[in-house]
Amino acid sequence: MLLAEADRASGAQDFARAQTLLRAAAIERPDDLSILLRFAGVSRAAGQPYVALDAVHRALAISPLDFTTLLMRANLLDRLGDAAAGEAWGHAIAQQPEGDLPPQITAALAEGERRHAAWIDAREIRLKTAMAAAEQCADEEELGRIGRFRSNALRRTRHYHSEPTHFHFPGLAEREFHPRRMFPWLAELEAATDAIAAELEIVMAAERAELVPYIQYAEHLPLRQWRSLNHNADWTAIHLWRNGRKVEANARHCPRTVALLERLPQPVIAGASPNAMFSLLAPKTEIPPHVGVSNGRLVCHLPLVVPEGCWFRVGAETRGWRRGDAFVFDDTIEHEAANPSDQLRVVFIFDLWHPDLSAVEREAVSALVAADGGPPAAGL
Fold first, then answer.
1. Fewer CB within 10 Å: C terminus or N terminus of the chain?
2. pLDDT single digits (tens) 284-340
3. Half-sphere exposure of 294 toward its Cβ, with a 13 Å CA cutoff?
4. Distance in angstroms (rounded) separating the CA atoms of residues 111 and 89
5. CB environment 220-244: b (16+ within 10 A), e (fewer)
6. Phi, psi of 319 (to 5 degrees)
7. Could you give the C-alpha distances from 120 to 110, 111, 123, 299, 317, in angstroms and in order?
8. Which residues contact 111 (CB under 8 A, 6 or more apart)?
9. ∠ CA(248), CA(254), CA(256), 5° rounding?
10. Alpha-carbon distance 217 to 377, whole Å?
């Protein structure tokens, strides 16, 4: 009865009476979010934004993540010229429901996104100014980390963690892309790009070479992250080493590549490692976000055939592959890739020990993984 009368009073623009009725209703039902929102709306219409904002804050105390309430708060703060409006729009946008919204709400959100972006830009300028002295003294690697720290603080990016599907060794540094200084042999690998690419052409032309789908596991297994590419020829591999076994049909065509691998710190684990392969990604193919099996190892990419537009993301950092430009990354941090071109993309891939593991820890990892039967079918 009180709510119906309040609606009639509001429709007649008798906002004072509507407020009185809604206050009485709120006393009867103090945890009813809808009553507080009606009161906030009536107060806003009555030209009392601070009263409306107080009601909104009481509503948020009941339901802190309610989209409609957050949207109203951002709108009110904007009308009041409050400096907190930019951040408030971000809170509302974060709770935007899926599906179509009424045109009025869509328009308000679009304006809110502009306001929030402007707030982020202004905040970034302020933070850069404050950090300028420190950044002047930083080297390239430090600048990258400092920049990411700022980007995370601004919520332009977020932090990602190592989330292996099977084997997690504690205390290892989590880096999306590991710095080159930790792998002095990268220069030797890159210098061999032409030789490795030449052997790729030989093995691809060989009659008995083994070209297999990169992802192969039984359909009944509880794995979802690669389902669209399971047993799919759009993502294939020519293995030189696979789960600790040399694939002679391929390796015999690549003697220089195999010899180079023997000088690198690859794990040697019965039934699991080393692994080394030419990864072939078909045109117009995407590899969905996924994570690897063990954080005890890292993965190295040496791009060999890279059409324009191909890209690779690990965590919050996206890179374009460049032929002969190798890098090392942690594949237990969410990553994905795409070949949007009309040509084949080929990358040479192999695994490495994580450099934080001591000799004794490597021995322990090897023993556990081998005793556990090695990695699942998708590979270590």
1. N
2. 999 999 999 999 999 999 999 999 999 999 999 999 999 999 999 999 999 999 999
3. 26
4. 9
5. eeebebbeebbebebbbbbbbbbbb
6. -125, 150
7. 15, 14, 5, 35, 20
8. none
9. 130
10. 5
